[in-house]
Amino acid sequence: MTISNPFRSGDKREAGKSDEEWRRDLTPEQYAVLRKDATEPPGSSPLNDEKRAGMFACAGCGNPVFPSDTKYESGTGWPSFYAPLPSEEEGTDGVETKTDFKLVVPRTEVHCARCGGHLGHVFNDGPAPTGKRYCLNGAALDFTPHD
Ligand SMILES: [Zn+2]
What we know:
- Helices cover 11% and strands 27% of the residues.
- It is mainly β.
- Strand 1 (54-58) and strand 2 form a beta hairpin.
- The longest helix is centred in the first third of the chain and has 9 residues, at 28-36.
- It is globular and about 40 Å long.
- The structure holds zinc ion.
- It holds the Pfam family SelR.
């Protein structure tokens, strides 16, 4: 878990790495979450308390995915957002979702559209205006405050 990685917007070369390369380039926590769909323990990420204005990017490839102005305190112990950066926005590839059947009740999994890294899940109990709760792993994110 690190929030000090340089912000590498638009670095498409990060996508398409081998498993070995991901293992080498990520911390064990980042690798477990991004590449193996692990979920970090609630309350474990310093990004829970990150309140500054800035951008949350995929820790795997630097793709900017969630702006700080859609972050809110969900009380779950995971960084939570009500909307991702629109994929039409310049400089981002946005996020994609797919249905995850790992538990009895299917959940919607959220991943980085650039490198496929697992970020978390999205639920329908979020605040206005979207009603969505993007429940993310801090280990999958790098935060860069605005100047
Ligand atoms: Zn990514």
